User: What shape does this take?
Amino acid sequence: MFFIFESKEKKNEFIYLWREFKQSKPDEYMKKTLLLLFTLLLALSAQSQNSLRLMTYNIKNANGMDDVCDFQRIADVINHIHPEVVALQELDSMTHRSGQKYVLGEIAGRTQMHAYFAPAIDYDGGKYGIGLLTKEIPVSLKTMTLPGREEARALIMAEFDNYIYCCTHLSLTEEDRMASLELIKDFAAAHKKPFFLAGDLNAEPESSFIKYLQQDFQILSDVNQHTFPAPAPTETIDYITALKQNMKGFTVTSAQVVNEPVASDHRPLVVVLEQK
Assistant: This one.
C-alpha cells in the first residue's frame, strides 16, 4: 500500500506521531494509538473540504506488462489514490480483442465511480477511445473530435460546480498536436471556471509542443518524474495541466507519479490541489 498525503505538513506530522508511537511506554499506549489512528485517517482521507485530487492514467485496456488483462488491478490503483476525477486513455468498448467488454464500465464498477466514454475510432467490432471516471455526476458533458493522421483523436470534458476537467490522448504527430491545441484553446475560452486538461499528450517537456502549450497552460504535474515505460520510466508524456487565466483560487499541494510498474505500460499521475 502507498499513502498520498494532502501536504508535506501532514506527512511530517504523521511521521512524528509514528516515531512517538514506537517509543511509547505501556501506560501511554492507548492514548497514542488513538491519536495515531486519527491522524492516519486524516492522511488517507479521500478529500477534504478544500482539496481536489486529480488523476490521469493511460491504462492500455488494463493489459499489464505481464500480459495479463486485470480490471481489478487498475481499479486497485485508483482506489488507493481516492481521486475526485480520473482521465483514462486507451479504452475499448465492446471490441473483439477485449472480449466485447466495456472496459471503462468494468473499472467504474470496481471503483464505484461514474463512467463517461468518448469514442475516437471504430475498432474491431466496437469502439476505442478515452474516458472519465468521476465521484460526482457532472453538471454537463461535452466531447469533440481532434485530428490524428494515424488515428482520429478525441477530447471529453466534464463540468462540475467549481471546475472543468478534460481528458485527451493526442496524436503521435506534432502537427496534429498543434492543431489539437488550437481547438482545445478555443473550446476552453468559452468557460470561466478553472479548466484542467489531462492525459497522454505524446510529447516530452522539451518538445516544441509542450513549450507552446505552456504559453496558455500551467503544468501541474512534475515533469521530472517520468511516466513511460512503466517498468523503468525514461520519458514524460503524461500531464495534468490548468488554463492559466482560470487558475485563480487553486494551489498545488502535491504532485507525483505513482510507483506502479506492472498494471499498464504507463504510470499514473496524481495532483492534489487546495482551493482557497
About this structure: The chain has a mean pLDDT of 91. The longest helix spans residues 174-189.
